[in-house]
Amino acid sequence: MYSVVGIIYGIVTTIFTGYCLAYYFDSFMEQRKLFCGNGKYLVTISYVIIDYLADALFQTAFETKETIGKQLLLLGVVFGFVKLFYRAGMQMSVFLTITFVALKDLSSFISTTIAMCSDKLFDLWIVLLEKGYMSADTADHMISLTACILQLIMIVVYGVLFYKSLKMVVKNYKNKEHFASKEELLYLLTPGCVGFLLCILLRTILITVENGLPMDLYDKYPGLIPVVPSIVILALLSIVYSVKLFQNMIVANEERSDKLILEKQMKNMQEHMAEMEHIYSGVRSMKHDMKNTLSVIMQLALNEDGQSNEKLQNYLLEMNQTMDRLEFQYKTGNSVVDVLLNMKYHELASTMPDIQLNADRLLFPDNLQIRGYDIGIIIGNALDNAMEACKKLKEKEQNAEAFIILSSFTRGKMFFIEVENSFEGKITRKKYSEFPVTDKKDKKAHGIGLSNIKNTAEKYHGGVDWTVENKKFILTIMLQNERSMENVSW
C-alpha cells in the first residue's frame, strides 16, 4: 500500500512542480509565438518527463556526486526551458532559474525535515507491538498508515510553501521590465545562490551511511533539529524579501527621478505660463488700442464729400482682421489651459495645418479647486502624447484624418478630463505595463507623460484610464475637485 501511495504522491508532486514552473515563467515573460499559447502545458509536461529521467539517471541517493549532479542538471533544464519557451533576456533567465530551483529545494527540504522529525511515531507502534497492546497485523497497518499520512503532510507543506513563495516573488517583483545593473543583479541572485548551495550541502550531509546502514543527521546530532530548519526557513524568506526590497528601491528611484522631471517640467511650464500670459496681455491691450486707432483712421480716410478711398479702406480692413486673429483661439475659462492650447495650436498650425484641435467641450467650473499648474501638467502631457500620435499617423498615412478632441465634465465631486486623438492603430504594451510602451530609443527620457499625468491625478485622489476604439485613443483623467494635500505653490 505504502509503495503505491508513494508512487502516486511522487507523480502528483512532479506535475505540481511542473505547473509551478510554467506559472512562474508566464508571470514574468511572454511565450514565443511558435508555441501558440501552449507553452505552459509544454513546460509542465516536459518538466515531468525530464524529472523522471533525472531520477533514473541519478539513482544513488547518498552519493555526493549524484546529489550535486542531479541539482546541476535541474538547474540547466530550468534555464533551458526559459530560453526555449519564452522571450527573455539573460538577466531575467538567470534570475528566474536560480530563484525557482532554490525555492523548490528549500521548500522540499523543510517538508522533508518535518516528516523526519515525526518518524518517532513508528517507534510508538513498535513499542506497543512489543508490549502486546496490538497485533503484528495491526502494527503493520498503523506503520503503513502513518507513513502515508507523513508523506501527505510532506506534499502539502511542500506545495503550500513552494507555491506561496513563488507567488510572493511574482507579486513583489512589480517592475518586470527593469534592466538591472550588475550590482542589482548580484543583490538579487545572492540569496537564491546561497539557498541553492545550502540545499546541496544539507542533502549531502543529512543522510550518511555508517556500517552499511543509513543514518540521518538529526539522530546523530539531535541539537540540530531546531537549528537546521530555522536556517532553511530564513534562506527561503531572504529570497522572497530581497525581491521585495529590491523593488522598493526601484520604485523609490523611479519616483525620485519622476519627481525631478516633474519639478523641472512644472518650473518650465510656470515660466512659459508667466511669459505667455504677459505677452498675450500686452497683445490684448495693443489690440484694443489698435482697433480704436484703426476706426479713427478709417473715418479720417473719408474724402470731404464723404466718399472713401477704396484701396486705403481695404488695407485698413485687412489690418483689422489681422488684429482679430491675435485673439485667443481657445477660451476654456482657465487661463493656464487657454495659453497651453493656443501655444499648441500655433505649433500644430506650422507642422500639421490640416489637424483638427477641438476644445469646445473643455470647460472648467467656477468652483474648481484643482491648482492651475496641475491642470497644465495634465493637459500639456496629454496634448504632447496626442500630437506625437497624430504625427506618426500622418507620416504613415498622409491622407488620414488627424484630430485631437478635449472635453471635460463633472460627476458629483469628481472632475473628468477626456482627450481623444487619432493614431496609427498600433499599441505596444508589455504584459505587466500599465501604460503603452514608448517606441523611442531613449525610454528613460520618453514615455513618462502618462506617468506624470497619473502622479498628478493621484494628488487629487484620482486616477487615469485609457481605451482604444479602432484608430482612436481615449485618455480619461479623474480628479477629485478639492485642494491637493501637497504644499506646492503656484
Keywords:
490 residues, alpha+beta, Heat Shock Protein 90, 2 domains, 5-stranded mixed beta sheet, two-stranded antiparallel ribbon, 13 helices, 64% helix
Structure description:
There is one protein chain. By secondary structure, this protein is α+β, with helices and mostly antiparallel strands. The model is unreliable at 441-447 (pLDDT under 50). The chain has 13 helices and nine strands. The chain has two domains: 2-259, no CATH class; 329-490, Histidine kinase-like ATPase, C-terminal domain (Heat Shock Protein 90, 2-Layer Sandwich). Helix 5 (120-130) packs antiparallel against helix 6 (136-172) and helix 11 runs parallel beside helix 12. It has a five-stranded mixed β-sheet with strand order 5-6-7-9-8, covered by helices on one side. The chain is elongated. The longest helix is centred in the middle third of the chain and has 74 residues, at 227-300.
Shape type:
elongated
Spatial order of strands in the largest sheet: 5-6-7-9-8
Unreliable runs, pLDDT <50, ≥5 residues?
Answer: 441-447
Share of helix, binned = 55-70%
What's the structural domain tally? 2
Task: Summarize the helix and strand pattern as letters.
Answer: HEHHEHHHHEEHHHHEHEEHEE
Terminal-residue CA separation: 79 Å
- Give the overall pLDDT as a whole number: 78
Largest sheet, in brief, is: 5 strands, mixed
What is the SS-derived class? Answer: alpha+beta
Q: Cα-atom Rg, whole angstroms? A: 36 Å
| Overall strand count | 9
**Residue share in β-strands:** 5-15%
Number of helices: 13
Summarize the structure.
With 490 residues, the chain is an alpha+beta fold.
